[in-house]
Specification:
Blueprint lengths: L6 H14 L11 H40 L6 H10 L6 H10 L1 H12 L1
Length: 117
């Protein structure tokens, strides 16, 4: 069987991996085997943390809405506000509610008065 020269293919594959890992520190950016391991690890972390980021932002929005509602006696709690929003079929998502709560509290009062009446 004839010998296959893999220099070109292997070099292309390694340079692709090195470009991905160029910002890593130490051997993680220089040695091929550790670079491959770190690339796998980085991709796993980024996949996992994309879901975690959504969770964290939702938690942040809920905290902001709850703080404003308790502070200004709009409702007794966040959960009551959301429950009444759903009952009145005013479907405003939590991101927008959090922005309203921070930037314009009067608008939040108007929304809560709409719910109460």
């Amino acid at each position: 069987m004839t010998r296959v020269r893999r220099g070109y293919t292997a070099r292309r594959r390694r340079t692709k991996i090195r470009l991905f890992a160029s910002t890593f520190r130490g051997a993680h950016s220089r040695l091929t085997r550790t670079t491959i391991q770190q690339k796998i690890r980085a991709l796993v972390s980024s996949y996992r943390d994309r879901g975690r980021q959504k969770r964290n932002f939702r938690c942040l929005w809920i905290t902001r809405i709850n703080a404003v509602t308790r502070e200004n006696k709009v409702f007794h709690s966040y959960s009551r506000l959301i429950h009444n929003l759903y009952k009145k079929q005013l479907l405003i998502n939590r991101k927008i509610l959090a922005q309203i709560a921070i930037s314009n509290k009067n608008c939040l009062y108007l929304i809560s008065n709409k719910i109460i009446k």
